[in-house]
Each structure stands twice: as structure tokens, then as C-alpha cells.
Amino acid sequence: MPESQTNSGADLHLVLSGTGLRAGLTDALRDAVRSGRLTPGSRLPASRALAADLGVSRSTVTESYAELVAEGWLTARQGSGTRVARRATAAVQPPRRPTPRPAEALMPGASDFASFPRAPWLAAARRALDSAPHGAFGYGDPLGRPELRTALADYLSRVRGVSSDPGRIVICSGFHHGLSLIAHALKARGGRAVAVEAYGLDLYRALLADAGLEVPLIPVDEHGARVGELRDVAAVLLTPAHQFPTGFALSAERRAAVLDWARTTGGLILEDDYDGEFRYDRKPVGALQGLDPDRVVYFGTASKSIAPALRVAWMVTPGPLLPDVAAAKGRVETVSVLDQLTLAEFITSGAFDRHVRGRRQTYRRRREQLIAALGRAAPEVRVTGMAAGLQAVLELPPGTEEPALRAAARRGLKISSLAEFRHDAMSDRDALVVNFSAVSDSAWDGTLDALAEVLRATHTTSV
Fold first, then answer.
1. Shortest CA distance to 47 belongs to which of 8, 74, 14, 12?
2. All residues at 6 or more sequence positions from 347 whose CB lies less than 8 Å from its CB, including other chains
3. Using CA atoms, how far apart are residues 328 and 64, in angstroms rounded to an integer?
4. Measured between alpha carbons, how far is 216 from 134 in angstroms, rounded to an integer?
5. Measured between alpha carbons, how far is 178 from 282 in angstroms, rounded to an integer?
6. pLDDT tens, residue by residue, 146-157
């Protein structure tokens, strides 16, 4: 019968066996306690109720209860009923199999979630809720809360050189969402194609294709995307501050060239500034958008700087494009207003700057440690790209990429090859993409040692 709480104690399903009712009931109750079905402190049914349920005499139940009380399995107190003794031996659980050690994620996209600024974020949330107007708890402006848009306009101008006012900022639930809005806006304006860098994430290329757009590829080299090869497209998607995943910045000459292309053709530049705050060899290069706000759509996100779980991103749109973006987003806000208010407070209070500064120092230190460790263990492996961001590309000797990936997997390291991010599935060199931001501080030293040993052993075997 189903278990339920009653005035007479919990209902109890018992199967009596043996020739004697009292002995059978005693054994069944003892087994129920021993197996854990009756936990310490559980109240048993009153003797009258259990006798009625089992179809036995009340004296059979009271005698069985008394025997188990004497043995220490049960306790009985006036006004408290009969309960399972606190010291009763619970079920002996079978030994659990050891939980396999989780693989250390060195793959792009992950981050050290232990670094989430819990205390400052909670403090910002409290202040934001204390000061929020009652109207903030409604559905909100589909383009985003004014508090966050104002905070971002100031921050982006100060830190990334973005030219903006709050009215041209649109809040979205991640870069993926923002790119989807732009894709639909471009399609509505008659756009047919959006060019993308030959190296990047497949899901963004797929998103554009799903929106009905052609997606031609632009080659990438050590100077960034080769924008001189742009042809008849409505827009081009670039990561100019830090090309993902190769790690190179768009050169000054190519920055000027792509702006000239946009002005001449009327095309748009979609600037994905996914980790613009994290250049640590020198001051970051300002956003491309600052050079021509009318031809560049600027994208930023909290996924790399705070955490992907926040699901808050933003884009700064040219004025003429804003109505089409607003139409694509719809009439109801889709991003948590409470998170927007908290992020606005987090930024304006200075907590965001402090958090980013701390992460930047950590990433710089880890990249330097990575270079030093490889210099000792595998000097033939070269770290390429500029000192920025959350990952590095490791150039390997020819023919060693696959052995390195297999050896890493055996050591519990998840690593990506550079070829995984090339859209045409053709890679011209052996290389690994190592995300040094993804591992917790406590696991970093061991993970770095394991990676260095994998690459040392791989090179030794291949020689």
C-alpha cells in the first residue's frame, strides 16, 4: 500500500512468512529496519491500525513490537508511539564503484566555473533589487533594460573604444541569439550571403545557413582574415581583435581594407569581440566598430568574462538596422530582467572591472607557465598567436597530431585539434588548441604537467 503520513503512523507494507504470525511479523519488521525501508526515527503504525491492516490480533502486533523494543530495533514512549530506534543498524550498502576521475577539459568553450564571482554578484543582485523600480518586474522593453544598456554604453566606450549610445544597444541571450537576429534582419533587407572566417565554430556557420543565407569562406593567416578576397556578400563575420581559434589579430592594413570594402559596397561588418578584454601583452586594440559605427555591428558577451550560464550578451547596431533587429527580436523581452539589473549594477559598481582584471592576470600567468613547461619538456612544440584570450594554439611537428590526441585521451585530457575548427575540414598543419582557462586553480599544475608529458612522450616516440 502507498506510504502516507497518518495519525497512527506511516502505512507499511509487510509480507509475513513462516508458520507463526508473531514470529513472521517480528522477522518482517526487523528486515524492514535492517534493509533501510524503515529509517531511524520513522514512526510505525499504531498496533490497532497495523493489526487491522494485516488481519491479525492486536496482541500479536503489541508482542512483536515489545520483542523488537527489547532487542533495540524499536523504541516506545508514551505519547510518541513506536518508532525505529536511532541506533538501529541500517542497511549495509554494497560498496560503490570508484567514480572515474573526470577528464580535464582543455577544449575551447569551457571555462573555470569555480572563478564565478559569487559574493560580488550576490551583493550586486541585492543592491539592484533594493533600488529597482516596481515597473522593472514587468515584461520589459524587448531591446533590454535601460539600466544595463546605459551601463554598457559607458563601459564599452571606456574599455573597448566602441561608439554608442544606449538607444542602439540590444540585449540578447548570448552571441548565438544576437547573430540569429542579425541574420533574420539581413534576410529581411534582401541579403543573400554572409562571409565567415575559414576557421571558427561550425554552429555559427550553420545558423547563418539555416536562416537561408549563403556562407562563403575567407582564408585566415597570421595577419587575420584575408578580407581582400571578399566578394558579393551582405556582411562579413569577423573576430578582428583575436581570431578564433588561430589567435591572430586582424592587421591594421586589413582593418582599413575591410572598412573600405564596407563603405564602398554598403556591406556590414559583424564584429564578434568575444574576449576583447583579455589581451595581456599590451593594451587591447580598440574595437573595429569605433572606426565606423554606421558600418559595423558590434557583439559582446558575458560568457567568457563571467560565465555562459548568465546568458546575457549585447550588440551595438547601426541606427538604420535597428528597426529590423527589433522586429526580429519580437515584442517581449527574452532575457531575464533580474539578471540584466544585476549585471548593470555589477558593471557600474566597478566589480566587473575588478573581476576581469583578476582573470586577465590568471590567464597571462597560465599562458606563460604553458610556454615554460613546453620549453622544458617539448621544445619542438611552438605556442603561436598573440598573448591574449583563453586559449593557445600549439604547433606540432608533422605527423604528431593524432598520436598526441590519443595520448592525451589516455591521460584524461580533453584537447581539440586545430582542424576541428576549419570549416572545409582541410588542415594545412598539425596543431592543438589548448584552453588554459578551463581548469580550476587547484587542478592546473597537475593538468599542465600531464600535457607537457604527453607532448614530450609523443615527440620522443615519433623521433
1. 8
2. 148, 151, 152, 155
3. 73
4. 48
5. 29
6. 999 999 999 999
